[in-house]
């Protein structure tokens, strides 16, 4: 009897996520995330000034789509506060249909930016900005829970304390079931059985009773419409990409895995396009829910996909049950996420003593601006700008100019050491003794590098000052890159210092 070829005898390898253990972890993590998404989506809908169902549908379509198109497994994308804040004025002034049209256009812009490689800019984010982003995020997650703890019965605080105890103690006993899920189930069962009256998910807004419907935004296809929605779409695209890529980088560090940032960029765009055509309010990566997912043990796309599916099932099919969940339980989950997200090591006295003051300044600036504006994108931009200014200031002071006079007194040699760019070369023109130097001067740049036109302009100014005094100036020692830049720009920059 002839044996089958080895390729036919071997069974196809089963995907890793189909193993019972991983499937259970991914499914339970997705369920916890879905429960946490409900009040967030409702709250963000209120911020945007739209029906809560629009935020819930957006969270469903974003999660399901990004599970397929995204580049960072286990990351959760849904309706977010940042996007809600960006689009709120548009919804208020022109209506929901214009908001939906802006979401579609914003998604197209994100896909385009992703295709041209905007994700590569992530490499220029300093670590201090990343730490500030994480800490600011934790603070915002925590402060976002405070309204749910104001003007509430004392029983809310008792439930919150009980939930926190469960989530702290249970992981030390077993990790078979995510502690946040246990806390939600136990507290809900207790409030229903004991008849305790506390704020619930149902109090946050009406839950949908039907599926989202595919459609085209009802707006005039005119240039005027484009001028109305374009500014909001551009802002949404940039804010959404920045938050998503920062979150992806954070998850990379937590899971010790690498993700495709370019795919994540255009995947976010595709998810927003789909969301817009289903009438959603758009969104991006959600750091809080992503942390819940990752801390629950999820590592694959399955948890993201199931979070979206569970969300739809919960709000459409099990809406009356979900409405009974006490907000105290979900607030407790988010508080634990905030505590786990904050980089406590970054504020220890031992760390602060060792850390350069410039690094600490960048971190504090990022945190302060983010918390003040409630916008992570603005905080990151300011943090990067502060880091650039401090870096330029630090490097500028690393340039030195030393001189030596030939024994016969006919030639003076200046040796310039350091990186020459706009910040360090502006004062270069004042480092030479034009009136007292001999007939021949040599500037040796073998230990320096010319980075920009500002430096070439400064060298032109130095050359002009020596020529006015009849001094012969020779510039030597330039490396290939510096020589090419100098040759291309010298004499054409209008130096008149």
TrEMBL record:
Keyword Glycosyltransferase (UniProt): no
Task: Output the superkingdom of the source species.
Answer: Bacteria
- The record lists the membrane-crossing segments as 53-69, 98-122, 129-148, 154-174, 181-201, 221-241, 309-342, 362-391
GO CC, any one term? membrane
* A Pfam family this chain is assigned to: STAS
Membrane association type: Multi-pass membrane protein
Which intervals hold domain STAS?
A: 413-497
Q: Which Gene3D superfamilies match?
A: STAS domain (3.30.750.24)
Major location (coarse): membrane
Query: Which key words are in the record?
Result: Membrane, Transmembrane, Transmembrane helix
- Report the subcellular localization: Membrane
**UniProt-recorded name of the protein:** SulP family sulfate permease
Which organism encodes this protein? Haloactinomyces albus
* Top-level taxonomy: Bacteria, Bacillati, Actinomycetota, Actinomycetes, Actinopolysporales
């Amino acid at each position: 009897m002839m044996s089958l070829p080895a390729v036919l005898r071997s069974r196809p390898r089963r995907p890793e996520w189909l193993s019972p253990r991983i499937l259970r972890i991914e499914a339970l993590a997705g369920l916890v995330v879905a429960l946490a998404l409900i009040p967030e989506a409702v709250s963000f809908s209120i911020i945007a000034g739209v029906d809560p169902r629009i935020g819930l549908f957006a969270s469903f379509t974003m999660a399901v789509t990004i599970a397929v198109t995204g580049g960072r497994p286990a990351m959760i994308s849904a309706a977010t506060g940042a996007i809600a804040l960006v689009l709120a004025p548009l919804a208020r002034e022109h209506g929901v249909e214009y908001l939906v049209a802006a979401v579609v256009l914003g998604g197209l812009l994100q896909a385009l930016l992703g295709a041209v490689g905007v994700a590569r800019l992530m490499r220029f984010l300093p670590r201090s900005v990343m730490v500030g982003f994480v800490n600011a995020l934790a603070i915002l997650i925590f402060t976002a829970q405070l309204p749910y703890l104001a003007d509430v019965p004392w029983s809310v605080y008792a439930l919150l304390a009980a939930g926190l105890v469960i989530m702290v103690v249970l992981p030390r006993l077993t990790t078979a079931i995510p502690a946040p899920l246990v806390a939600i189930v136990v507290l809900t069962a207790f409030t229903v059985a004991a008849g305790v009256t506390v704020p619930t998910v149902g109090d946050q807004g009406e839950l949908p009773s039907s599926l989202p419907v595919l459609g085209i935004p009802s707006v005039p296809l005119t240039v005027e419409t484009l001028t109305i929605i374009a500014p909001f779409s551009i802002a949404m695209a940039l804010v959404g990409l920045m938050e998503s890529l920062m979150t992806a980088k954070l998850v990379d560090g937590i899971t010790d895995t690498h993700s495709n940032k370019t795919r994540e960029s255009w995947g976010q765009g595709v998810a927003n396009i789909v969301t817009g055509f289903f009438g959603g309010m758009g969104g991006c990566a959600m750091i809080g829910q992503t942390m819940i997912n990752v801390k629950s043990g999820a590592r694959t796309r399955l948890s993201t996909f199931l979070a979206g599916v569970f969300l739809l099932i919960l709000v459409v099919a099990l809406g009356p049950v979900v409405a009974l969940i006490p907000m105290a339980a979900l607030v407790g989950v988010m508080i634990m996420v905030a505590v786990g997200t904050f980089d406590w090591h970054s504020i220890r006295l031992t760390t602060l003593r060792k850390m350069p003051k410039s690094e600490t300044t960048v971190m504090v600036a990022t945190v302060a601006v983010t918390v003040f504006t409630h916008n992570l994108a603005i905080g990151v931009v300011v943090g990067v700008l502060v880091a650039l200014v401090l870096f330029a200031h630090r490097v500028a002071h690393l340039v030195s100019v030393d001189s030596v006079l030939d024994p016969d007194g006919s030639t003076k040699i200046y040796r310039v050491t350091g990186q020459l760019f706009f910040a360090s070369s502006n004062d270069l023109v004042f480092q030479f003794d034009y009136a007292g130097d001999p007939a021949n001067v040599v500037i040796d740049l073998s230990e320096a590098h010319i980075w920009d036109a500002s430096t070439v302009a400064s060298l032109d100014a130095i050359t002009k000052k020596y020529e006015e005094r009849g001094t012969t100036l020779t510039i030597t020692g330039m490396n290939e890159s510096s020589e090419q830049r100098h040759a291309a720009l010298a004499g054409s920059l209008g130096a008149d210092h």
